[in-house]
Automatic annotation (TrEMBL), chain A:
Transmembrane segments: 6-24
Organism of provenance: Algoriphagus locisalis
Name listed for the protein in its UniProt record: Lipocalin-like domain-containing protein
Top-rank taxon, per record: Bacteria
Keywords annotated in UniProt: Membrane, Transmembrane, Transmembrane helix
Automatic annotation (TrEMBL), chain B:
InterPro entries, sorted: DUF1275
One Pfam family from the record: DUF1275
Keyword ATP-binding: no
Superkingdom of this protein's organism: Bacteria
Transmembrane spans: 16-38, 58-83, 90-113, 125-144, 185-205, 211-228
Annotated protein name in UniProt: Uncharacterized membrane protein YoaK, UPF0700 family
Annotated organism of origin: Algoriphagus locisalis
The entry's keywords: Membrane, Transmembrane, Transmembrane helix
């Protein structure tokens, strides 16, 4: 009987502490809300042949960026506005598109749902003013692109 | 498969291991496809937990900690049921955890099919339910097979397979029936887990969320197979006096040709 009480006490304590701590944390779904401006595209990881070249520039030029994103939902999007109704508004210099967004996993996967296309981006960092997304590509070279965003309004 | 705790045969362990590992493989792959989270390999979650803590992502760290906690709770629950009910009815004690697992998977499957809005909270709760279900399954199979069958513990299984493969370089080990049986069991679990995962990936393309119902069917087979055997045994035992009488009646005729 004594051990039953001990088990119940420990279990209750763990649950209470767990949910108390959880309630203090901002969820990734809340952190992502707002308007984000794309500031850079870089190669995060590449095949080893390119790595050997020390002069290789990891920053992605606009031309390459255009080629990589040509068939993607995010093509020509410069600012991304995430709203509470799970809509992301992507605005470019001469275009504006709206898609459905949702987070998966433990909040580390951003799913953007187009009418006939669904894309997944890995959220590497999501702070109050910075968001870093990764995605795999195989255009010209195989690797991972790192997209950095800065929040332009909160 | 699940009715016996002591003197288990290799065949029983292989049957149990094959069916439950197949289910675990299916659940794991389907959770990755739908939720982008593993539900039957906790080692990976420990690595993610450490990574999230080191990055200072406390929300994600707490979510992963919760998932590990639920896998722990699943193991705790199934063993608690087994040790408390075993004395009265072993079959009942062993089948209750599987029934709980079926309920968890049915809830997840039904919720996804009719109510899932793809919010993060829903995803986290669904993964929690699946990890709890996998904890129940792993705890049960490990308990009733004296840790011989662990259907979601592929790290340990691969380790054991590697060790056994090296032991088989010596002739006396190759001829050791105990080691050979263990090899057969581990290989069956590994193959079933992989087959479950591959088939879940293929099946999902055509029947989508209904994969959960297929997993439940496999688990019903685990319970049903033993129920059938127990029922048949009890029927035969009940009819034994009748057979004895027949044999007795026939015996003099046989002895006096």
């Amino acid at each position: 009987m004594k051990s039953t009480y001990l088990y119940l006490t420990i279990f209750t304590l763990v649950v209470v502490v767990y949910f108390t701590l959880l309630s203090f944390q901002k969820t990734p779904s809340d952190s992502i809300l707002g308007e984000w401006k794309e500031v850079s595209w870089e190669y995060e990881k590449l095949d080893s042949t390119r790595k050997a070249d020390s002069s290789f520039d990891y920053m992605i030029t606009d031309h390459i960026k255009d080629q990589i994103s040509q068939n993607l939902i995010i093509h020509k999007a410069e600012t991304w506005k995430f709203t509470e109704d799970e809509t992301v508004e992507m605005q470019g210099s001469d275009s504006k598109k709206c898609f459905h967004w949702t987070l998966k996993g433990r909040g580390n996967i951003l799913q953007i749902d187009g009418s006939d296309l669904m894309e997944h981006y890995e959220i590497q960092e999501l702070s109050a003013d910075r968001m870093i997304l990764h995605f795999n590509f195989d255009m010209q070279v195989r690797g991972i692109v790192k997209m950095t965003f800065e929040k332009i309004n909160t | 498969m699940i009715s016996r705790y002591r003197d288990r045969t290799v065949k029983e362990n292989i049957q149990l291991g094959a069916l439950t590992a197949f289910s675990a493989g299916m659940v794991n792959v389907i959770s990755v496809i739908i939720f982008f989270a593993f539900t039957s390999n906790v080692t990976g979650h420990y690595a993610i937990l450490a990574q999230e803590i080191s990055h200072g992502n406390w929300y994600q760290a707490l979510v992963v900690f919760g998932w590990i906690g639920l896998f722990f709770l699943g193991n705790f629950t199934s063993n608690l049921i087994v040790i408390n009910f075993k004395k009265e009815k072993a079959y009942l004690a062993h089948s209750i955890p599987i029934v709980l697992e079926i309920i968890c998977l049915l809830v997840v499957g039904t919720y996804i099919q009719f109510y899932y809005k793809e919010t993060l909270l829903e995803t986290e709760l669904m993964v929690s339910a699946m990890l709890f279900a996998m904890g129940i399954q792993n705890g049960l199979t490990a308990t009733i097979s004296n840790s011989a069958v662990k259907t979601t513990h592929l790290t340990g299984l691969t380790t054991d397979l590697g060790i056994l493969a090296s032991l088989f370089t010596k002739k006396e080990n190759r001829e050791n029936p105990h080691l050979r049986n263990k090899w057969k069991l581990l290989l069956t679990i590994m193959t079933s887990y992989l087959a479950g995962g591959i088939s879940a990936g293929y099946i999902y393309l055509t029947i989508a969320y209904n994969v959960f119902y297929i997993v439940c069917i496999f688990l019903v087979i685990v319970i049903g197979y033993d129920f059938y055997r127990l029922k048949m045994n009890s029927l035969l035992q009940r009819k034994q006096p009748y057979y004895r009488k027949i044999i007795k009646r026939q015996a003099p005729q046989l002895s006096n040709p």
